[in-house]
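sorry to bug you again but im stuck and you know this stuff better than me. what follows is a protein written twice so to speak, once as letters and once as structure tokens for the fold. mainly i need to know what kind of three dimensional shape the backbone takes. anything you notice is useful, everything is just below:
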Amino acid sequence: MMSFRKTGKDLQVPLGAVWLMNSVSEYKGKQELYLKQSPQILKALVEMALIESAESSNRIEGVTMEPKRLKPLILGRLKPQDRSEEEIAGYHKALDLIHKKHKSLDISPQTILELHRLSHTGAGDAGLWKEKDNEIIKRNPDGSIEVIFKPISAASTPSAIDQLCLAYRQSTEQWKYPPLYAIICLILDFLCIHPFRDGNGRVSRLLTLLVLYHHGYEVGKYISLERIIEQSKSTYYDVLQRSSRRWHEAKHDIEPWLYYFLGTLYSAYREFEERAVSLKSSRGVKTEIVIQTINNQIGEFTISDIRKLCPGISKDMIRVVFRQLQKEKKIICLGKGQSAKWKRIG
């Protein structure tokens, strides 16, 4: 599509992006080492990443649910009781499909429709292309609405997706693009086509995980890419807006999106290495995860802050760890009650 058309066969990757690609590839080379050395730790990370990804990707789109129901819902112990819970459970099913069957899922219109069908469970148009033209809007602080991008028309969407999948395959098989660059073009063009009435962001993140798997980048199984994107949501929307200008003419600037995407992946791999190297199973994997999360805090924080960063761990266990660290004089409580602030000592 347009990003592939803009670049064509004469690809020139900026030096800074080359450095990031090489750094990510170095981390990729260490994956097998961690997989063999720390299977118990990685099992805990997989569960956490599934929960974080399902929650964060939907929260980016404004879909939320009661925290205490999140983990049992995603692990299949509860049935969805409303539309939000259906979408979160559906997103988890899509993640599970990718984790288990990514080798059999090609980059095709059929796969994209299936990812939408699963992640948009409960909607009447789940698994269907948009029937009406749509616009990407921005709500300003004063309440006004600004149209920032007009995607491909509904009538042209099926053809545009066909062209996108073909261009992606051509870029990797014939033009020999670096895999990460091809992925970056694929996701940007998908978002600019905006092929669904709703759920485009969620499908783009699922598609990202799938194509990363295809090229051996498995970090998304252990570290939630969706959570990292949510934590930088304002930057995410800003770079998309900047990189989509003049996209229809193939005169857009890919670089803002290029650096954001690579930076997100690099951050995920750094976090993966830190956790895989530092977690000690002798004290309990989940306890170590909470301790490491606390140690990564800068300034004051609350128990709720840590819970959000450790969604797969119960509130009771987190409180036990807080009491343990307080007794060891490694953290100090600055107030009283559930919303009390805490701070690390030293």
Observations:
- The mean pLDDT is 90.
- The first helix runs from residue 2 to 7.
- The two ends are 53 Å apart (CA to CA).
